[in-house]
Specification:
Distance between the termini of chain B: 14 Å
Shape of chain A: elongated
Helix content of chain B: 25-40%
Distance between the termini of chain A: 74 Å
CATH architecture of the largest domain in chain B: Roll
Low-confidence stretches of chain A: 63-69
Number of domains of chain A: 2
CATH class of the largest domain in chain B: Alpha Beta
Structural class of chain A: alpha+beta
Number of helices of chain A: 26
CATH topology of the largest domain in chain B: C8orf32 fold
Helix content of chain A: 40-55%
Strand content of chain B: 25-35%
Mean pLDDT of chain B: 90
Number of helices of chain B: 8
Oligomer: heterodimer
Chain lengths: 831, 311
C-alpha cells in the first residue's frame, strides 16, 4: 500500500503529483525511496534529524513581547523539496537577472536617480518607502556599493512556474540554516535516498570566501560579521557563518570609528576592519547618522563608507529594494537597464499611487491582498476576502489617505508539498529561499536553499518568526560538481585562540566579572558574620560585647560604602536597637549602590554578556541562584536565622559559580583578565576591612572578638590556627592577612600573584607598565614592613596610626592600578 | 544687509567623556540671496579629526571626532552673512506671480513632472513629523479650497497659526509631537514650523523645515544685550510651477531681510545644528547662546552699490 494513499491534494497544484495524480517524472526515484522506507523508517530518520539539529545547537529565537526571547530548536522533515536540473537552469538565469537588476536599481537610486528622472519608476515608490536612506544619497557612485548578497523567496504558482514572492536585500537570513539543513540531510540521505545525486552547496561558500577575500585584499582578518547579539532571532546563524567564513563575529560595542575607518577593539589594541557582513538592519547600524536610539551599531559607520574605507554587505540603504512598490515596474526597469524581458514571474501587483490602478483596487478589494510597500516596520497584510464590509471601508479610507504607500496583490494558490509529521504525510504550502552572491560582473546562485513550510495545513503564511519548520532544497544532478573540493567544506569550530584577539568589551566584562564576584563573596561573608554575631550564633560563654558589634557593623558600612549606614549619628539609637533594619537594606535594597543586591545585579549583567564564553552549566547555575536570590530579597519578615541561612545558601552558589568560571574559561579566552579583576577587588576589600578592624586600639576581650571577626569574614580562621597554633593576637593577624607571603588570601600573596599575571598580558613590556608600577610599589612597601615598628602606639592615640597610613597608601596604589589597567586595555584612548 | 552671528553651544556632562562623534551644521547655506562672507567654528576641546560633507538636502555638515577627555563641550560658530533683500523681494514677487491653484497643484503632483521630483522628498512622513492626522488636515483645508492660489492660502495658514497658537517657551522640546502642539495650541518656533509642515503635507503639498536665525530688536530706546537671540525655524512650501516659498508662522512674516538660513530638511532632525553620540554614563545639560547683529553702516553702502532699486 502506498504511503501516499492518504495524501490528498486539495490545492490546484502539487510538487509531487500532477493533475492526474501521477508522480511527476523527476520525483519518481525519491518517491520510490520513500515508499521503500515506509513510515517507520521515516520516523526513525526524523528522530535522527531532530537529534543532529539539537546536538549542533541549532536554535531560532522567537520574539515575544511578553517574555524574554525563548529559544526554540530548529526543525526539518526528511522529505526534500526537489527541483530538476532543467527547470533549475532556467530559475538560475532568472535569479541572476533579478540580482543584476536590483543591483542596478540600488546603485541608481543612490546616485543619478535616472529611474526617477526618466519616469521609469514614480518618485513616491522611493521617497515614500521607509527603506530609502537619504544619508547615503550619493554612495551609489562608489565601486564597493553593491548588492553583494541577495535572497529571493519563491513559490510555485498555478502555471507551474516558480514565482518571486519577496526580495530580501538588506541583511538576508537563512544561509546558515540552509547549510545546516544540508549537512543534517546528508547524514540520513545515504540510508533513505542512496542513489539520488544532488548539486552541492560548498561552491557557494567558497564563492562567499572569495568575495570577502577580494574586498579585504586577501586579508580575511579585516572582515567581520556584525550581529545585534545573542538575543536576535537568528543569532545561531551569525555564529555559524562566522565559523564557515572564518571571520570574527562582532557587536557594535566591539567596534569604534576613527580616521574615517572602523576598528575592532581587542586586548592587543585596535585592528582595522574594511568589510562588514552585517545582520543589523539599515537604520540600526549607526546611531550618529541613522537611528540615534540604536545601540546595535557603531557611530561613524556611515562616515567610514563615505570615506571609502568600508564595504558593507549589503550597503546601508539596500532596504529600499525590499519594496513591493517596485514590482509593477520591474518589467519596465528590466527593459531600461538590460533590454531584456523579465525571466521570473512575479505576483501581479498594483501600486495604489496611480489613479487607474487605485480605482481598480478599490473596485476589486475583496479579491485582493493589500499591504504596505515597505516591510521596515510591522507588516500588516489585509486579505480583502476575509474582511467585513466596515473593515473594507476603513481600509479604503487608509488607501485614499496615503495611496502611494500601498500595493494590492492578486491572491495566488501556491503549490503544496508532502510534509512528514507525527507519522503522517500531508500537503503543506512552502516557500523556497534562494541565495545569490556577486561574482565579478555576474552573480553566483547557490544550488540549494532554505525551504520554509507553513505551520499548518491550509495556511498561506510561512514565517519562521511565527514558528514552522523547514526542508532541504535539492537540485537534482551534480555530476559537474567537483567532489574532491567537498572536503574543504566542513564545519570548523572557530574559537578565539589567542588572548590578543579577545574583544575589548568581552575583556572588560571578564574584568568586572572578577571584581563583582569577589565583591559579592566578600560582602556576603561579612554580612553573614555580622548577622550571626547578632543572633549570638557562636554561643560563647561571654556574650558578644556591644562594642565589638558596633565595630563590625561600621566595618560593613565602610567596606560596602553604603554611607551613612551604621555611621549615621543622627540615627544612632534606632541603629543600636534594630541593627537588622540597616543590614536588611544592605542586603536587599537594589537601588542602594554597594548593597549586596546591587552587586548581584551587576554580576548578573556581566554574566549575561559572557554567556558565549562561560560553560553552559555556569549559566544554568547562575539562573537558579538568581531565582532563589530574587525570591529571598522580595520577601519580608524573614527571621534573622532564616536570613543567615539564606546567605549561607547563596554563598555556596557563589563559590560553585566561581569554580565553574575558573574551570570553563580558557586562559587564552581571558581567564587572566578575570583573575586580575578578582584579585584587585579582593585586595581592596581586605584593606578596607583591615582599616576598620585592625587599626583600633581595643581592650583585650573586645580586640579578640574583632580579630576573630575579620578572620571569619575572610574564611581564614582555621588556616590561621594551623599556621600560628596560638591564640589570636593583633600582631599575628596583621602578619597573616597582610604580609604573609605563603597564605593565598594575604595581601602580599595576591600582590605577588598579580605581578606574575601582568607579565602574561598582551601589553606587557620589559619595563613596568603604568598599571604594574603601583603594584610593584605596593610589593616593596609590604616587604619593607617591620611589624614591631608598625604597631607602635603612643599613649594618647586611639588608633595604630602607622598601620592605618600604610593601609591607606596600599589602597591608593591598588585603585591607581585598577584605573590604569582599565585605561590601558579598555579605553583605546591613545591608539 | 550684513549680519554677524555668534552661536555658542555648551554641553555639560555628569561624567567624563573621552570619545564622541559629532555632526555640526553651523555653516549658513549660500544662495542667490544669501552670501557667506566669513565663517569659523571652534570646538573646545579641540577635535581629533574632522571631515566636511554635503548631505542630500544640500546642507554643509561637519563630522568631528573628539578624543580628549572632557566634562564639558563648547562649540562656537561665528558667521558673517550678507542678505540681499531686493533679490528676495524679486523672488517673492516671482513666486506670487507663478503660483497656481491648490487643485492644479495636486493634479500636477499626482503625475510625473521633472521639476517636481526633488520636492517629492518632502511630501512624506519624516522622523519627527510622522502621522497624518485627520484633524490637522481639516485645519489646513480651511485655507485650501481647490481653486485657491497656493501662495495666498499658505500665507493665510501662516497667519492662522500665528493667531491661534500661543508662543510659550519651555513647554515643548524637539520630541514634542505635532499632534500635541495642535491640541494645546502652544509651542515655540520649531513647533509652529513643524506643525505648518505637517498641515501642508497632510493635504498633499511638499513642505520643508527651515533652520536658521532671525534678527530681533530690543524695545525702543534700549540697547540690545549680547546673546539675547535664539535659533529660529520656519517652513517652506513647494508651489509647482513657481518653486519654494518661505513663511514664518512664529512672526507672521514672509522672510525678506531678517532671516538667515542655516539649512533645510524634512524636519528638525535633518538639520539640528549639533548632534553627537557620546560614550558616557550619566546625563548631560545643554545651553545655547545666540547673537544676531546687523552691521549698520555697511548695510547702507552695500545697498547703494548693490542696487538702484528702492522698495
Amino acid at each position: 500500500m502506498s504511503i501516499f494513499e492518504s495524501y490528498i491534494v486539495e490545492s490546484s497544484i502539487d510538487e509531487v503529483f500532477d493533475e492526474k495524480k501521477n508522480v511527476r517524472q523527476y520525483w519518481n526515484n525519491i518517491v520510490e525511496d520513500i515508499e521503500k522506507a515506509g513510515l517507520d523508517l521515516l520516523k526513525e530518520k526524523q528522530g535522527d534529524i531532530d537529534w543532529h539539529l539539537e546536538d549542533n545547537g541549532v536554535t531560532f529565537n522567537i520574539y515575544d513581547t511578553h517574555e524574554k526571547s525563548a529559544q526554540r530548536s530548529w526543525s526539518m522533515d526528511p522529505i526534500p523539496f526537489v527541483i530538476c536540473e532543467e527547470e533549475w537552469s532556467e530559475i538560475r538565469k532568472g535569479l541572476k537577472q533579478r540580482a543584476k537588476l536590483l543591483n542596478l536599481i540600488l546603485r541608481d537610486l543612490y546616485s543619478e536617480q535616472k529611474l526617477i528622472k526618466e519616469n521609469i519608476i514614480p518618485a513616491e515608490v522611493v521617497y515614500g518607502h521607509k527603506g530609502y536612506a537619504p544619508e547615503v544619497f550619493d554612495f551609489g557612485f562608489k565601486e564597493n556599493f553593491n548588492l553583494y548578497f541577495y535572497a529571493t523567496d519563491m513559490a510555485r504558482g498555478p502555471d507551474g512556474k516558480m514565482w518571486v514572492i519577496n526580495d530580501r536585500t538588506q541583511a538576508p537570513s537563512g544561509l546558515g540554516y540552509a547549510i545546516e539543513n544540508r549537512l543534517t540531510m546528508n547524514s540520513i540521505a545515504k540510508d533513505l535516498y542512496p542513489d539520488i545525486m544532488t548539486r552541492k552547496l560548498y561552491t557557494f561558500v567558497e564563492d562567499f570566501k572569495k568575495l570577502l577575500e577580494e574586498l579585504t585584499d586577501g586579508d580575511l582578518s579585516r572582515a567581520a560579521i556584525l550581529t545585534p547579539g545573542p538575543h536576535n532571532e537568528t543569532y545561531f546563524e551569525h555564529a555559524y557563518l562566522s565559523s564557515f567564513l572564518e571571520i570574527d563575529l562582532v557587536q557594535g560595542d566591539d567596534l569604534l570609528s576613527k580616521n574615517g575607518s572602523l576598528w575592532l577593539k581587542s586586548l592587543s589594541g585596535l585592528k582595522k576592519i574594511n568589510t562588514l557582513l552585517r545582520r543589523v538592519d539599515d537604520r540600526y547600524c549607526d546611531p550618529l547618522e541613522l537611528n540615534d536610539e540604536s545601540r546595535l551599531g557603531v557611530a561613524g559607520l556611515v562616515e567610514s563608507m563615505r570615506q571609502n574605507n568600508l564595504s558593507v554587505i549589503n550597503p546601508i540603504g539596500s532596504a529600499v529594494l525590499e519594496n513591493a512598490g517596485l514590482n509593477p515596474f520591474m518589467e519596465k526597469i528590466c527593459e531600461y537597464f538590460l533590454q531584456e524581458k523579465l525571466i521570473l514571474p512575479q505576483i501581479a501587483t498594483w501600486w495604489c499611487g496611480q489613479k487607474k490602478e487605485m480605482d481598480f483596487v478599490i473596485e476589486n478589494l475583496e479579491k485582493l491582498i493589500i499591504k504596505k510597500i515597505d516591510r521596515t516596520e510591522s507588516i500588516q497584510v489585509y486579505f480583502g476576502k476575509k474582511m467585513s464590509l466596515p473593515e473594507r471601508e476603513a481600509l479604503k479610507l487608509l488607501l485614499l489617505q496615503s495611496p502611494h504607500q500601498y500595493v494590492a496583490q492578486q491572491e495566488v494558490a501556491f503549490s503544496t508539498i508532502p510534509y512528514y509529521e507525527n507519522g503522517t504525510i500531508e500537503p503543506r504550502n512552502a516557500v523556497v529561499r534562494t541565495f545569490c552572491l556577486k561574482k565579478g560582473e555576474d552573480y553566483s546562485v547557490m544550488n540549494g536553499g532554505l525551504v520554509r513550510v507553513a505551520a499548518e495545513k491550509d495556511s498561506l503564511i510561512v514565517s519562521s518568526q511565527r514558528g514552522g519548520t523547514s526542508k532541504d532544497l535539492w537540485i537534482l544532478g551534480g555530476k559537474e560538481d567537483d567532489i574532491s573540493m567537498a572536503h574543504s567544506f566542513k564545519y570548523a569550530q572557530y574559537v578565539e585562540t589567542s588572548i590578543d584577539k579577545i574583544s575589548t568589551p568581552k575583556a572588560e566584562n571578564l574584568f568586572w566579572l572578577g571584581r563583582y564576584l569577589a565583591r559579592a563573596i566578600t560582602t556576603t561573608r561579612l554580612i553573614m558574620h555580622v548577622v550571626k554575631k547578632i543572633t549570638n550564633f557562636y554561643r560563647y560563654e561571654v556574650g558578644t560585647s556591644k562594642e565589638s558589634q558596633v565595630i563590625l557593623q561600621n566595618a560593613l558600612t565602610h567596606m560596602t560604602m553604603t554611607y551613612p549606614g551604621f555611621l549615621d549619628v543622627s540615627n544612632d539609637e534606632s541603629l543600636e536597637i534594630f541593627p537588622m533594619r540597616e543590614i536588611t537594606s544592605v542586603i536587599k535594597d537594589t537601588s542602594r549602590g554597594g548593597s549586596l543586591a546591587f552587586t548581584v545585579l551587576m554580576l548578573s549583567n556581566t554574566n549575561i554578556n559572557l554567556k558565549d564564553i562561560l560553560a553552559f552549566e555556569s549559566s544554568k547555575l547562575f539562573d537558579k541562584m538568581q531565582k532563589e536570590w530574587n525570591e529571598f530579597i522580595n520577601r519580608t519578615n524573614d527571621s534573622t536565622l532564616i536570613v543567615a541561612g539564606e546567605l549561607d545558601n547563596f554563598l555556596i552558589y557563589l563559590m560553585a559559580y566561581k569554580e565553574l568560571v575558573k574551570e570553563s574559561v580558557f586562559k587564552e579566552q581571558g581567564l587572566i583578565i578575570y583573575d586580575v579583576g578578582y584579585k584587585i577587588e579582593s585586595a581592596l576589600l581586605l584593606i578596607s576591612k583591615s582599616r576598620s578592624m585592625l587599626c583600633l586600639k581595643l581592650d583585650r576581650f573586645i580586640g579578640h572578638d574583632v580579630l576573630e571577626g575579620i578572620l571569619n569574614s575572610q574564611e581564614s580562621f582555621n588556616a590561621y590556627r594551623a599556621f600560628y597554633r596560638s591564640s589570636v593576637n593583633l600582631e599575628n593577624v596583621v602578619d597573616f592577612l597582610i604580609i604573609n607571603p605563603q597564605f593565598p588570601k594575604s595581601l602580599a600573596y595576591m600582590t605577588a600573584e598579580l605581578l606574575k599575571e601582568f607579565k602574561l598580558l598582551p601589553k606587557a613590556k620589559e619595563e613596568l607598565t603604568s598599571y604594574e608600577k603601583p603594584i610593584a610599589q605596593a610589593q616593596k612597601l609590604l616587604e619593607s614592613i617591620q611589624l614591631v615598628n608598625l604597631l607602635k602606639i603612643e599613649k594618647n592615640e586611639g588608633i595604630y596610626v602607622k598601620l592605618d597610613a600604610m593601609l591607606l597608601k596600599l589602597s591608593d596604589l591598588y585603585l591607581e592600578c585598577s584605573s590604569e589597567f582599565s585605561n590601558t586595555y579598555f579605553s583605546h584612548y591613545d591608539e | 544687509m550684513i549680519y554677524n552671528i555668534f552661536h555658542k553651544t555648551v554641553f555639560n556632562y555628569q561624567s567624563t567623556v573621552s570619545f564622541s562623534h559629532n555632526i555640526a551644521r553651523l555653516k549658513p547655506k549660500e544662495s542667490l540671496s544669501q552670501k557667506l562672507l566669513e565663517f569659523s567654528m571652534e570646538f573646545t576641546p579641540k577635535e581629533y579629526e574632522s571631515h566636511e560633507f554635503i548631505d542630500s538636502f544640500g546642507n554643509e555638515n561637519m563630522h568631528l571626532l573628539l578624543r580628549e577627555p572632557h566634562q564639558s563641550l563648547c562649540v562656537v560658530g561665528k558667521s558673517k552673512v550678507e542678505i540681499f533683500p531686493e533679490i528676495i523681494k524679486e523672488q517673492i514677487n516671482n513666486l506670487r506671480a507663478k503660483s497656481i491653484s491648490f487643485g492644479n497643484a495636486l493634479e500636477r503632483l499626482s503625475k510625473f513632472h521633472a521639476d517636481d521630483l526633488e520636492a517629492k522628498q518632502f511630501l512624506y512622513e519624516s522622523k519627527l513629523i510622522t502621522r497624518k492626522s485627520k484633524l490637522i488636515k481639516d485645519y489646513a483645508l480651511e485655507s485650501f479650497a481647490k481653486e485657491r492660489d497656493i501662495f495666498e492660502a499658505t500665507n493665510e495658514l501662516m497667519e492662522r497659526i500665528y493667531t491661534d497658537f500661543e508662543f510659550v517657551s519651555g513647554f515643548s522640546d524637539i520630541t514634542t509631537p505635532v499632534e500635541k502642539t495642535f491640541e494645546t495650541r502652544k509651542g515655540v518656533c520649531q513647533d509652529f514650523a513643524q506643525f505648518g509642515i505637517s498641515a501642508l503635507r497632510s493635504i498633499g503639498l511638499p513642505a520643508k523645515y527651515m533652520s536658521g536665525y532671525i534678527e530681533t530688536l530690543p524695545p525702543q530706546g534700549e540697547e540690545k544685550l549680547f546673546g539675547a537671540d535664539a535659533s529660529h525655524a520656519w517652513f517652506s512650501v513647494y508651489i509647482p510651477n513657481a518653486g519654494w516659498a518661505e513663511f514664518d508662522p512664529t512672526n507672521n512674516i514672509i522672510p525678506h531681510e531678517q532671516h538667515i538660513l542655516l539649512g533645510s530638511g524634512r524636519d528638525y532632525h535633518d538639520i539640528s545644528p549639533l548632534k553627537g553620540v557620546v560614550m558616557s554614563s550619566g546625563g548631560s545639560h545643554l545651553s545655547v547662546m545666540v547673537d544676531v547683529r546687523r552691521e549698520e553702516e555697511k548695510v547702507y553702502m552695500q545697498a547703494q552699490t548693490q542696487s538702484q532699486n528702492q522698495y
